[in-house]
Give the backbone structure.
Amino acid sequence: MRIVYVSTDVGVPPFGHKGASVHVQAIVAQLLDRGHEVHLVTARPGPVPAHLAGLHVHPIPCPHGSDPAAREVAAREADRQAAVVLDRLAAVGQVDLVYERYALWGRTAMAWARRHRVPSILEVNSPLPLEQARHRSLVDRAGADAVARSATADAEVVVCVSEPVAAWVRGLGAATASSVHVVPNGVDTRRFHVGMVRQRQDAFTVGFVGTLKPWHGVDDLVRATALLHDGDPSYRLLVVGEGPERGRLDELVLRHDLSGAVEFTGATAPSDVSAQLARMDVAVAPYPPTETEDFYFSPLKIYEYLAAGLPVVASDVGTVPDLLAGSGAPIGALYPAGSVRGLAAVLAGLRCDPDRRAALGRRGRKAAVDLHDWNHVVDHILDLSEVRRVATQAS
C-alpha cells in the first residue's frame, strides 16, 4: 500500500527523543516493515534514522514566533499545506491510506481523505485543546475545539490511546459511535534486552525514563529515594530524560543531600534507552494523584519497562492498575498515588525479595511480547479500517 502519515504538530519532532517521537517512529517502522510505501508529512523534518530507511519525508512550514495568537494562525496555514503534499502524491499514484496523528490545528488531512474517498485513520493521543489551555497557552479555544470536531467527523476510524481520550472524542459530538476505538500504546520488544536479576549487590538502583514534566511525578520519586537513602545509603536513583522540571528536581536533590546518589542522564536517544534500563533494578512510573478522567495517558514508559523485563512500580492512577494486573497474575506493583512513604515501602519490599522481582520481570516481559508489541497494535489499528480488507483482497 501507499500510505501517507501526517504529523503537523510542531511539538512532535518525528525523529526526536521524546515519547511522542518514539510513538511516531514505532508506527512508521511497523508500516515499513510490512513492505508499504510510506510518506511522512511533518513540520519538523530531520535526518531519517537508519531503521526508517526508505521513508519519504515531505516538509511543510514550521510555525514559530513569540506571539501565541500569531503562532496559532501560522499553524493553521501550515496544516493546509498537507493538502498540497497529498495532491502532489495523488497526481503520480494512488494513495491507499491517510494516517494522521491528531494535532491541535490538524484538520486538512482527514478532510482531504474524505473528499477523495481514501481510507483514513486519525490517532488521538490526548485531548489537546484541554492540555494546551491548561499547561501552555491557547488563544482560540473555540477554534481548536472546532478543528477537533472537524477532524474526528471526517476520519473513517478514530483510534484513541485510552478510554478517557475516547470519551473526550465522543463528547465532541462529531464522530459516529462506531468509528471511535480504544487501542492502547505498545512497545518494540526487539529493542529491549532482559538482564539478570541481581540477587545481592552493594547498590540498588531505582530508575525512571521520561520527559521531566510535572505530571510525571519525579519529585515524589526523589523524596522516596531520600527516605530510603537515609536508612541505607546504598540506594541509587537513575533518571533518564530531560525536561522543564530539571531545575526544580536538581534543587530537591540538593535539599535532601542526595547529590552522590542521584544521576540525571539528560536527553537520551531512543536507541540508548535499553542500555539505561539495564542499569536499573526496579523501574518506576510515579504519576501524582489526578482525577480519573484527567489521566488520559497510555504510558509508553511502562510498556518499555515491561519489555526490558524489569519489575515495575507505579502509582494507582487511571488505567495503570488494569494494565499491571496482568491476565493471571500481577506484572507490576502499585502504591497509592502521591504517597511518598507508600512508594518507598514498595521499593524496599522489592529489594528484599529478588524472587518476586524476577517473577514480575518474567511476567512483564511475556505480556509485552504477547500482547503489547507494536506489531500487534498496528495490526489491530489496520484491522479497524477498510483498507486492510481491500488490500488483502487486492493481493
Summary: Residues 224 and 344 are 5 Å apart (CA to CA). The two ends are 10 Å apart (CA to CA). The chain has two domains: 2-186+373-394, 190-372. The chain is about 45% helix and 15% strand.
